[in-house]
Amino acid sequence: MSPSAGGFRELKRVGGFLPIEDHGLIGDGKASALIGRDGSVCWMCVPRFDSPPLFCGLLDEKRGGAFTVAPEGLVESRQEYLEDTAVLVTELRSTTGLVRITDALLLRAVDLREDLPAHRGELLRKVEVLHGRVRLRVTFHPRGDCQLEPWRGGLLVRLAARPEVDLVLRATQPLSGKESFWELAAGEQAALLMQWNGAHRRHWDVPPGEQLAETVETWRRWASHIRYEGPQGALVRRSALTLKLLDHFENGAIIAAPTSSLPETLGGSRNWDYRYAWIRDAAFSVYALRRIGMGSEAAGFLGWVLEAVERHGRPRVLYDLDGNQPPPERIDPELEGYRGSAPVRWGNAAAEQHQHDVFGEILDCAYQWVSGNGTIDAALWSHLAALADAAAREWQTPDHGIWEVRTAGRPFTYSAALCHVALDRAARLASDLRLPGDIERWRTCADTIARAIQEEAWDPKVKSITEHLGGGGLDASLLALPLRRVLPADSPLMRATTEAIHRHLGAGKGLLYRYLPRESPDGLEGDEGAFLLCSFWLVDNLALQGRLDEAMNLYDSLCQRAGPLGLLPEQIDPASGAFLGNYPQALSHVGLISSGVLLERLTRHERSHTLSGSPSSLPGPATRPEERATRDGATNAGG
């Protein structure tokens, strides 16, 4: 079982909802599902991540729908992953017995490092009674109107709103319709198999145990390639598996999170659909995976994003899984939202925004692609060179920034910094590969941007670089500047900025707000929780400034905030520690992996110098430790 798993706990609901952290994620590289600690599949989108949800009780307990298997008289439960897999085990204790449910989206026996479809279009729910005797209640309620018809010993499901979804439910015990009851005693087993989009045309002639074993082996074969020897090893491995669960195996796209509209504050309206591929988020995911031996995922995504750029020209902030424009953002009036946090949204209007940081993300992706022995032909280079020219042209113009504000655009410092990255990487590529381009102009403009950030964004009153060129509030994204090789982490400006952000945006116990809406208006009502990735960026800055003990202590405290399954949300409620935002969140797991790698390498560096008796070069400004760490692949970003 997963080494991060917890013991039995009482089920506690608020308004009919379990805490976000009381859910585990399963997936097959095309679709995913959240399984609650109560035995419910309360979130599932088929046939793929960004499809309308089949079950979304996570957003509306009454109208969202769920697929639940649980004993009557349920008292307490626990969840664990089978080690190094995405197969989830939920054990439920009732007043009369103990039941184990093993959930998996079944995989074919393929190498998950290759861009191949691995999904079977099947959800297996294996049920075992471990002790006593139980009366199991099986409920199958998809969202919306549906009809169930007997079919080959199972049920054919006809969804009124989605006739294109070909859905069947089979079981080794009789199914009565939307609700069935089974009496089972210790040692007895049952299985349910939900199949969609043609999977049911295969006869169910393979025992559930064999199907499950094949899926377990496929996951473990992939996980055997993880290379990591740093702190919090079990959590880093689980984070790698979680990022893989957000990977669209067939083409390399990586989604930001598998859910939509989980709130950034309870009862608030900051609820967004994250089931798409953000250039920024997916690029960060790639860098984290590369550092622990997952180079095929890096190559898959880099190829995907560069193809999207070739097809569409000017890059978008986010794409659907096919590299196309996602659907327009709309509000769903039928669902109440998680614990009453309305509105529920589908689609994401950020796709229409201008965010200059994408220039840097894509050029950095190309740079990483080449460093991994990828090639750039003349047609692709013409697009990339045009992006560098656009960065040179637009770095001072307002955009909506990394946090996608819904006010008028502003000249965000982070956006300018990523334009610097675009120009720097373009110059390096052109020089290294002898590609055509105005290398000196790109280098000169990159230097100009770096000076502007140091001079125009610096506020001597608060002793910090600020969110805008020309001044503004504090913004935790500035902690990423050393990680993108824009400014040295140990420079006086970054040391001061790190302290100011820690002091002014601190939410307590190492947590950080990404900004304060009252000082940095974003066009939205209400507040939000602490943003986990920003705290991992703080870890990196402390480490690169030579404050390794502080960095390690902060890293350990952040890792302790992971749920019992080792999963992390986007945000944390500083007052209660409860999870907020879409879950699990790729960026949070990226931070956990990348900070762990950085700490391990810098600690090893210190240890080697101590053992050799030579003075350590960390963190003297002449050695620029962030450059050394980046060459080793140890920061939270590319380069």
* Principal-axes shape call: globular
Helix amount: 25-40%
Task: Please outline the major beta sheet.
Answer: 15 strands, antiparallel
- The average pLDDT value, as a whole number, equals 91
Count of strand segments: 26
Instruction: Name the beta content range.
Output: 15-25%
Poorly predicted regions: 615-639
Structural class: alpha+beta
What would you say about this model in short?
The protein is an alpha+beta fold. The protein has helices at 208-223, 233-245, 279-291, 295-312, 357-371, 378-394, 413-433, 439-456, 492-504, 532-544, 548-559, 586-612, 625-631; strands at 9-10, 23-27, 32-36, 40-45, 53-55, 66-71, 74-81, 88-94, 97-107, 119-141, 146-151, 154-159, 167-171, 179-185, 189-196, 277-278, 318-319, 330-332, 344-346, 458-459, 464-465, 506-508, 511-512, 530-531, 571-572, 579-580.
Written account of the structure:
The chain has helices spanning 208-223, 233-245, 279-291, 295-312, 357-371, 378-394, 413-433, 439-456, 492-504, 532-544, 548-559, 586-612, 625-631, and strands at residues 9-10, 23-27, 32-36, 40-45, 53-55, 66-71, 74-81, 88-94, 97-107, 119-141, 146-151, 154-159, 167-171, 179-185, 189-196, 277-278, 318-319, 330-332, 344-346, 458-459, 464-465, 506-508, 511-512, 530-531, 571-572, 579-580. It is α+β, with helices and mostly antiparallel strands. The strands form six sheets. It has a 15-stranded antiparallel sheet that branches. The protein has a three-stranded antiparallel sheet with strand order 24-25-26. Strands 16-17 form a two-stranded antiparallel ribbon.
